[in-house]
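# nightly structure sweep
# worker-07 picked up a monomer target from the shared queue
# config: single-sequence mode, recycle default, output format = structure tokens
# input follows
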Amino acid sequence: MHLERNKSDKKDAKRIYEYGCDREPEKYTMPDSSYFECRSLNNSIHDLTKEITKFSNQIHSLKKCPFNAKKIEKSFLKIIKLLKEEKSKLELELHTKLVEWDEETLHLISSVKGIGKRSAAELMVYTQSFKDMESYKQLISYAGLSPTEYRSGSSIRGRVRICKQGGKQLRNMLYMCALNAKKSNGYCRALYDRLVEKGKNKKAALIAVCNKLLKLVFGVVKNKTFYHENFVVKID
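# output follows
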């Protein structure tokens, strides 16, 4: 920031003003209330999932204790049951809100084999129903799945990795989708098998499947066409 030694609100405002004059970014538009409702519900579901995982891990630890912890375990099981019930209610409410917000996009995303209800909801919320998404590369980058390299001269040769500058929750969910898609989705299965046969690491092959899923999702949403596994392009 121009090698400034001091920091103040006035200096920050000046640099932001200079950035706006130099880059001329697009004006920000506030999302509608439906988006904020869906995002709030989606975040609450994530919080409940973390709590369920936490208590499940504690039960696992209690089973390894040298003393009798049946009462504690029973109490935790009741909490987990209650949390799962509340999570199911929120998932149902989220689905209803997503249908009210953009039913067409939700059905298009869900048509892709390997993308479940939670993943479709995550994609819609994270991308604001694919607002301002102009290419699949932009979507992949937004999710933090684009490749990045660390290289300088002939001595520094870092491995190519994904940048991870994006939605961690979305990446985690897409990874689980990839595990399913490499079995149920023909395109993804062919891609995974081809990369593994070439000697690619299985985890790297799964990341490629994640990118493939995002390409398929972007394609069906932008073309407003439901996913067809035997889709063929006719050339006149």
